[in-house]
Amino acid sequence: MKIETTNTPAADIDASAIAIFIWKDEPLTGSALDIDTATEGALCCLIKSGEVSAESLAVSKMLAPVGVTAKVVLVVGLGAKADQAPGLAGRAVGTAAKSLAATARDTVGFFLDSLDVTEAVAATIVGVVGQGLYQCREQLTPFKKACFSTDDTAAVERGKILGDAQNLVRKLVNMPASDLYPDSFATEAVNVGAASGFEVEVWDEQRLEQERCGAFLAVGRASAHPPRLVIMKYMGGQSDEKPLGLVGKGVTFDSGGLSIKTSEGMMAMKCDMAGAATVLGTMQGIAKLKLPINVIGFAGMAENMIGGNSFRLGDVLTSRNGKTIEVHNTDAEGRLVLADTLDVAVDHGVGRIIDLATLTGACLVALGTDIAGLMTNNDQLAADVKAAAAACGEYVWELPMHDYFSDQIKSSVADIKNLGDSRWGGSITAGKFLEEFVRETPWVHLDIAGPSFSDKPKSWIDGGASGCMVRTLVEYAE
Ligand code: BES
Ligand code: MN
Ligand code: ZN
Q: Is the CB of 329 under 6 A from ligand 1?
């Protein structure tokens, strides 16, 4: 799909369809007014009679309106100005793109002037490229050309980079686990690195053995696809600046291991590498934007399977930092992979760590399907990540990290165990487990079990992988 900017008025643009955006109970302005004038007041009439709704993300079509060159005018409601939430522009334009892509079209014009100027034009491009048009399940046809009514070409370029980064994550997470396994993810990372400008190093199982990654290796042991640690380096900053560390859980399929999941619980478990994919997508975004910072991404890739060689309940694993871990449940595998991956990150001298993991079902119970759980050992870093998320309209919510949760992962035969004493507070005991492996490094853990993968589509995005947190991480990095 070609992306262009345009300054042709909405009524005159030579396009198969255009999208305009209207606020509830506000006079029409800009492109909406232009369409209303060209149609001799038809738009206003339709709004008054209730045929065209200005409710948030409501979609109405004016077909073959006299006086307008485009044969379809899609009107997307923005709701009341006072209720406006961050991210609205992206969702509104994504909704328009998804709706219009149900039919094959050559050129589509997006008229952005009613959207709040405080929200970057970029967000709207992300809405089209990264959310509206990428399809997993729905039948959509990307336009040949999308035109945006703006002269801010830098914002358009930024939006395209962010949209592509988000779509890379969605593509990888949506891939079946038979096609996307640790080594094929590593190959993808090498290719992405070469194309967008960062270095990629892959540790295979022998190297992981040499590095004493005993917890990580245990998880991947029963799989026909051996584990990989993918290390991605982008050094765009000063040579003396400590890199930001991004760490992702990359369990390419989580059967639960011997603590096997139910069929229902296993169904979506190809998504259990969403953290790793998010790290890769973010690296691509940061490198393509040529941000003046140093970042190292670490993707811990393993497949949690079952076989004669499985790791077992009661096993005592020695992690890379020397701490021993008693296995109480092989389905609490993500924290085992991350334990060693975090330790490798710390040894790379990173100044801060943000990890992303589809870590616990408990986080879905606590926060629902659209909010990531945030846990931290550093209030400043947490505040910065929260601010970045708020700026792009992604949702994170902090969970407490009181010391007493650490008592719940004490083991009688090892330093710690991989399960809390009870189900309660399961996201927090998992977070407390991870904290054992970051030493003094300021660290934020994002449990994305909820928002990374959705059973149902939304008006602006198809179901399946969402690519959540890519924009937040790039925003933070910026
Ligand atoms: N990958 C799962 C968590 C998950 C659940 C992600 C649902 C996305 C959607 C994780 O490895 C897991 O199995 N966690 C267990 C932990 C428990 C054994 C302490 C869980 O949540 O049940
Ligand atoms: Mn699991
Ligand atoms: Zn898992």
A: yes
